[in-house]
Amino acid sequence: MSLTVVLCSGGIDSATLAYKVAVERKLDRLISFDYGQRHRREIEHAARIAAALGARHDVVDITALGKFLTSSSLISGGDAIPDGHYAQDNMKSTVVPNRNAIMLSIAFGIAAGAKADAVGIAVHSGDHFIYPDCRPAFIDAFRTMQQRALEDLWEVELYSPFTTTDKAGIVAEGARLGVPFHLTWSCYKGGEMHCGRCGTCVERREAFHLSGVPDPTQYEDADYWLQAIAEMKKTKGG
Q1: Residue 97: pLDDT band with limits 50, 70, 90
Q2: Which residues carry a binding-site annotation?
Q3: For this UniProt entry, which residues form the secretion signal (predicted)?
Q4: Which CATH class is domain 3-236?
């Protein structure tokens, strides 16, 4: 069984990937990154997922780098988090430049040091609208680059089983695997509960609806997602 390191943000996607690896492969550890993001809720929830799995959880501090990535609204001190559907153009402000490339490079170094066989990342098709480092072309290119970076040293696979799966499909897979969705965190704003209005809250709410899986999440605005979808369709001409 492939010993796999999983990047975990504490959200639905990476939690589902962690459970999938724990069931179908061999889970080495979860890795989260502190890059100076707006809040630490995601790291706290990643720790909860790791605890539920009985897995090791490492947090890599790259805050010194994060201070140079202030063009993103996800960075502490950046612009306000926009409301709306995750496919709308205003969500581009949430892009953290080169984030996945940076995190994957570090994770591959950790995996090679631990003699692990793979690094897992939970990018999915819903990310393709806005995030270039979640698209299949990036995953394929990074896989090729990393094979060269570790050539003759150690072979590490890039495991990304959800690249062509949508969020609803991941929720359905998570339900099958018994993922404790109530332990996951998606909201970009980091309040006491999910705001229900930011792009990732809208995506979360919609995914549970489309999958038919009960949503255990408490939202400050539980109905905004319908308005966001209607506005997106109007803007995109759908």
Answers
A1: confident
A2: 8-18, 187, 195, 198, 201
A3: none
A4: alpha beta
Say how far apart CA 38 and CA 53 lie, in whole Å: 27
Half-sphere exposure of 123 (CA within 13 A, CB side): 25
Please state the residue numbers annotated as binding site for ATP: 8-18
Binding-site residues for Zn(2+): 187, 195, 198, 201
Reported as a single tens digit per residue, the pLDDT across 36-81 is: 887 899 999 999 999 999 999 999 999 998 777 766 665 655 567 7
Task: Give the Cβ contact number of residue 164 at 10 Å.
Answer: 11
